[in-house]
Structures
1.
Amino acid sequence: MNPGGPTDHTLAQGLLAGGMMDRPLMIADVLVFASDVYGDGTITSRRVEGDLHTTTYADTRKRTEQLAKALKDLGIQPGERVATMAWNGYRHVELYYAVSGIGSVCHTINPRLSAEQIEFIVAHANDKALFVDLTFVPLIEKLVHRLPKELKIVILCGREHMPDTSIEGALCYEELLAAQDPGFAWPRFSENTASSLCYTSGTTGNPKGALYSHRSTVLHALMCAVAFQNALFPGSSVMPVVPMFHVNAWGSPYTAPLTGSNLVMPGPNLDGASLFSLMDEVGVYSAWGVPTVWLGLLEAIKAAGRPPMSFKDVVVGGSAAPRTMIEQFDDMGVSLCHAWGMTEMSPIGTQANLTPPLSELPKDQRFDLKVKQGRRTFGVEMKIVGEDGTRQPHDGQAMGELYVRGNSVIKEYYNNPEATAENFDDQGWFRTGDVATIDPLGFLQITDRAKDLIKSGGEWISSIDMESAALAHPQVANCAVIAIAHEKWDERPLLVVVPEPGETVDKDSVLALLQNSFAKWQLPDDVVSVEALPLTATGKVSKLTLRQQFQHHYADNN
Ligand code: AMP
């Protein structure tokens, strides 16, 4: 077993060493660069306190230097973990850079995890301090007796907003900063030093940690800057709706400063109407997030009768964007680009921007490509492996489990040898758990999570394809297709739909629509309506919860 592949950097015999400096890739250098070159680039944040706050990269650098000194005064040592529980905002950006910059590890905690999971990861990470937004103070008050006694808790606000809290010894963030002057010499150390820690919100078992390094983070940022040139350029405004507590907001707090793009941080209000008004006010050019968020924004756009001003680009990841969503955005002149990735990949692995010849294809053929998850970013390699363990051709037909390797892919889970042993093959490729095809142009298409595929009478049915087709029905606002145990066929698909407001979904007309793209045996045996779909901590539809809810559906209805 060789997780992560060869790591021997010694020069093979006979090779000539390059004559170049070996300067380590450091996260702090990204912000120093941004402040030197794009110093007037901005971070605009909707604050938890309610107002809109704007700062520059030059000022962010100064405050990050103050924070670095404050962290040292708090006794945070290199290598120690410092946790955050916060929305997207400028203070969270400061923490990203200051914590990693002093050689400590920024551990972002997803507040939507259960109390048990939060307790587990704070203990597993052995966090020394926790920086929390005002929103999460009540959550921490309930949980604090289950957290280590020595954990230092800092509330992300000024003295005037400090809550009357039962958290003993809670510190005020702005006071910590005010006690320090700017000016700090960032230490230099190996680029392979750990920088940040994210736990995957596994639907079963305890969360597993991906421990990124300075090198992997900076390379990922450079790779994304190249892959998303259409969105990331000096002066463009990029709004990560994907939270900074979920895979570092897809790396945007690094890629935006690196490319001179402005960051727009939406804070706590992620509903369609709030996003619309923020985007309109600030002039967001490119917005990044999971499909559920864009369903909300599309509703707000419908209500307003126009898209937000300056809005031209949307990057969708986390789950598949349905074709109807791609079409709706395209119709209003907004280009939707799929990105696929995983926490274990920092997270971006592919992107579906079309190169010039492809973008000139007829609309239908363009959308055929855009529904796919896209082509690999530099530094990521992919292979698909069939049920018999053989590597499958990239012909767009052969389906297999997707494995990846690359510069920003984990080589092991943090302190979890069991999970590491289960998730790498003997050549060091990481097993994604996704099932996919890859076409001759290199476009990856995720057909399912391995555990979400439906196997009916020995044949596979892709839930993602069927959901995309069902969403084209005018009465269907959202939907999920899940596998339900079946006596005769092992599993049969069930379509769970959320009707458009004030509508009821007519089962026969949905099935008639699906018949256009699916064989009869693939069609769901039933269509049930629900008010809302259950979501996971990362805002994806929780098929596990749905499967549990409807597990006896076909047995009961036989
Ligand atoms: P996470 O580690 O929480 O970011 O989840 C990673 C998983 O989300 C992947 O393994 C995929 O199953 C799914 N995923 C991410 N991006 C996409 C996408 N663009 N389309 C379909 N599934 C996606």
Note: The longest strand covers residues 476-486.
2.
Amino acid sequence: MLEDTSFAIHPGQKKQMKDTNYKDIGNVLEVVKTDNGASVKTESGTLFIKFYRDDIVRFVFNPFGETTLKSSPALITDGEKTEVSVSEKNGEILLTSAKLQVYLDKSPLRITVTDPDGRLLVKEGAKGMGYKESKEIICFKEMHPEDHFYGFGEKTGFLDKRGEKMTMWNSDVYAPHNPETDSLYQSIPYFMTLRNGFAHGVFLDNTFKTTFDFRSEEANYSFSAEGGQINYYVMAGPTPKDVLEQYTYLTGRIPIPPKWAIGYHQSRYSYETEQEVRELANNFIEKGIPLDVIYLDIHYMDGYRVFTFDKERFPNPKQLVEDLRAQGIRIVPIVDPGVKEDPEYYIYQEGIRGDFFCKYIEGNIYFGDVWPGNSAFPDFTNSKVRRWWGEKHKFYSDLGIEGIWNDMNEPAVFNETKSMDVKVMHDNDGDPRTHRELHNIYGLMMGEATYSGMKKQLRGNRPFLLTRAGYSGVQRYAAVWTGDNRSFWEHLQMSIPMIMNLGLSGIPFAGADVGGFAHDSNGELLARWTQVGAFTPYFRNHSALGFARQEPWSFGEKYEKIIKRYIELRYKWLPHFYSLFAEAHYTGTPVMRPLMMEYQKDENTYNLSDQFMVGDNVIIAPIMQPAVQHRAVYLPEGNWVDYWTEEVYKGGKHHLVRADLNTLPIFVKQGSILAHGPVKRSTEIKNEKLTLHLYYGEYTSSSFKLYDDDGSTFEYEQGGYLIKTFDVKCEKDQISLTISNEGRYKPAWKEIELVVHGAHENIALFINGEEKYLQKKGDYTLKVTL
Ligand code: MIG
């Protein structure tokens, strides 16, 4: 391949001299006020400006035809009625809502968006919106020296994407995941800008291949698409959490996951037989290592035909699922989109008879080579097909299965382009579009089909779905894992900013293959990776065929002990995690956060890629290098308590901390609360007990919302939940704890144990205004039962 030689940088290479001549969308000819904004006629088309709320405004422009307000399936709302005033002053047009101001320069048309105080969000300068005859569209915006950029879904590299150029094109990338690896499995054409401590968001809802360029020019960034309309939203912030709330108002939030899905998951490509799966489960039980899920990768199927089991390897899947379930372990099978071309296979037959597969405009079915060999691909852009595919999952739910793993749904195909022919014409519910346009939503639509189907089959129980591919909105259906990483320390390091940016992209339920997928893992790496995994929202150990096994005991007792300790720690923290998942469900705020989300004015956090927060009061600073027992940790303002030693660290500076292989550095902010449960072997074991840890610190305060519900049904949508809010206020010699309750769920735990850390003598504890306890002895710990 010529690209792999020096020919790639030959001076005559055309590629290097890409045509950058965009046509500007021209001058404003006329402005007409509309319900939620304005319709602006320009020399080359019509621009719609539509407010979705006070704090969200959309810009749509079609340079090649009628502008339409149609949205991609990422959107779950048409917005709400918003007061917008339109006026004209000194030749400039101004649209205002309570939280945003949009200025239009008329010739040429240039847009500026500010907050009500005139603080700049986005501004067009020398260049604005444009297009090329090739049907490309582009938007330039001014870039300021203070700008930092986050989000963009699943990208390699560091947290802050300033200086990067990124392409969105769902791609199956086996193994590399290098800093320069660009398109991965997810396309989330959205980002958040942080400028001088204020955040705002931009979402380019365009399903074509899109590019976000923060590299090519010093004073501008751009976002562009290979086709379609200019169609983007500006979200006002001003905090990163506000931006997430605004973005997920548009694209939806995660359902509360079933409790079992936030436990520990064990996977391998593949556990190949029923026997092997049973032995695996027994091993966990004998060793007392907690486990909630075992995955079945592609070997469970009959010749890789989805919705089948191989009769020899898995003679009695129903019994297997039932027996494991009795042990508190669930089975999650893989389901790929490719359907084997086999006239004697029922799914293929139904797909052909129902006309459910992707086709060319000429009518012939598109076939691609994947695991089962030549295969057809359901056209998930068609709601009939989604319904059919969803109903097919009865095959799994009848066996007692409640979780599905969608892989290869970019879709990945074994060919030169690695995917489906872009000329394939999707049905798109009667509005046919090419694969070039809809490629990036194939995985999202498969997710919708699978999630909705499973939800129906499970009759009231929550399904769990894991997906590799997605587009904005994928969080409504699935958790996301970051695909085929490798057992390298560098990949452990990279997983942290990647998962944080997924969280900043509306996808809070995310994680990487713990231990690394390809390549041989080792004890030290697995131990350190498990420490991290225990605090990432999605926690699964997975590894590939042909490489070292990496179950917790694979590298000897020394490592097994440490790995077990951290899986147990995850179970201890489950009530805390569950509360954070509920927060994500209600607000869009991610479970795992960059420090910048809580400390947006603190520059030290802006590109901090090797530490993260769990909720708003815990900092995890893992060791991610071999043979290293020390690291620098940045702690923002406030006092921080070492979770293990209770040593107090002053914030606003860096510290050198020591952490032997047994230790994951965890810091808890003074004044805050952690919720712990008992260590259990599985979330199915019902020995509920709740312990709250309150970290005393003079003149500190916090608010913690403990969330609980039955963990398995959708009753929480009808008030079947409990939110207990704990407002903490610590003063010189006193702690006031105010507790309020919401919801009607009666939790399994009957009382809460409260452990106060760091309280010195004579501290009075007030609960809802009543003095409950006076600390007498100097043992620095209070124990009361609430
Ligand atoms: O390598 O199904 O990312 O997790 O084990 C191609 C086999 C197919 C890719 C997934 C990986 C999974 C594997 N799959």
Note: Residues 269, 297-298, 334, 407-408, 468, 483-484, 517, 542 surround MIG (CB under 6 Å).
3.
Amino acid sequence: MPKCSLKTRILQLRVITCMFSILFLKAFIHFFVTYGIYNYPHLPADVLETQLYKRTAPSLVLHKSKPDCKYDEILKSTSSVQNWEVPKKFDDFSAKGLVNGTYVPEHCNPLFSVAIIVAYRNRQSQLDVFLPYMHNFLRRQNIHYRLYLVEQQDEKTFNKGVLLNVGARAALRDRFPCLVLQDVDLLPLDAGNLYACAAEPRHLSASIDKFRFVLPYDYLVGGVLAIKADHFLAVNGFSNRFEGWGGEDDDFSWRLTNHKLDIVRFPRQLSRYTMLRHRQEARNSQRRRIMRENRQRGAADGLSSLPRVAVSLAANRLFTLVAVRL
Ligand code: NGS
């Protein structure tokens, strides 16, 4: 066997070290470039309240004897739940003050009416955590709200866009000025994350534990989004064409941009969420094609072309059920 000279050995060692250094550097750069946005631009923390859209539903009865509700302390609150502290069971949950998923503060007149719309199917274990958690969270916020659970009750492929459009239609009929579109697997952790619309569409779930609390990309509006009812109408709601997982929210984001609407957010320390674990749904292999086609057609498909679906409304103490059969 030929013996390696010292020079060759050193050279070999250098090549290996060099290769490892390059690989390490590549991984390091990749981590920061593709990992998401840590310090995303947000509304100024000290003037959050001035940026919010103060409007209540015309049906809400206001009492002259009561003062207006206050929001400054809620917005300044630093109280936060750690994601591992989120209860998995609510044995002591009280539905006090709730009728059909609606809540009105008792001691003051709210300045915000918010319809919370949740597209849903077959995730009972998440719903069992979501409903009590959300009502406990929201009842502390001094807002008037109603929770619409829009359930797809057929065996066809899940169509979140259609469900959100149907839910929005119900909320618009109830003349809610602000809609919050919320995933059932997301729970807000910060008490200061006030469920209210801003002048521009507001992405609430900017900092999710699943993404290690960074925003994956700046045009993301999936998860939890608060949007004024008139903006939802102006962009023609969601596309009805996305079946299965993915794409409908990015398509909606494009609709917002196309209407020159900015996406605004609260600071990170008010925008944290925990995601309840679940199996990844089957991805819609057609989603990118549909997104391209929708852009060419200019959002003609949406709320205005909602397919004929069977819808029935039912009351439950914790939510208004909007049952949908496609
Ligand atoms: C993008 C999807 C969005 C989705 C987002 C986050 O890739 O619909 O991931 O998903 N866009 C497309 O597929 C085109 S998450 O990991 O939160 O389930 O909302």
Note: The chain has two domains: 1-34, 40-277+286-325.
